[in-house]
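Yip1 domain-containing protein structure dump, as promised
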Amino acid sequence: MVVVTLFVVSLLTGGLGIYVGARLVVGEEEPLHAILTGLLGAVVWVVGGVLLGWIPLLGQLLVLAVYAWMVDRRYPGGWRNAVSIALIAWLVTLVVLTVLASLGFATYEAIGVPFA
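structure tokens r here:
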């Protein structure tokens, strides 16, 4: 049950972050698109982390690049917008998880959110 709760919280916080980023950067207002992107981002981040994350610094940068590529594929505007959306998503998710962690409801171990 804890894993399911962690996944749902991670998906919703990651989706919220992507929604805010996409809305600010490209004007996208579809929350389901953001949640699906958050789900894909979680998969990309976990798989990329397993395959490349063991390489010091370079592995994390490669995973971040793949994450930004995935955002680029889902939203218009090219790499500049994708990196902006990903950065805003990361910041929004960090704020939400900080609030939830301070209230005892979550930790920083969000699936699909690049914290490393």
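The chain has one domain: 2-102.
lmk if u need the other ones
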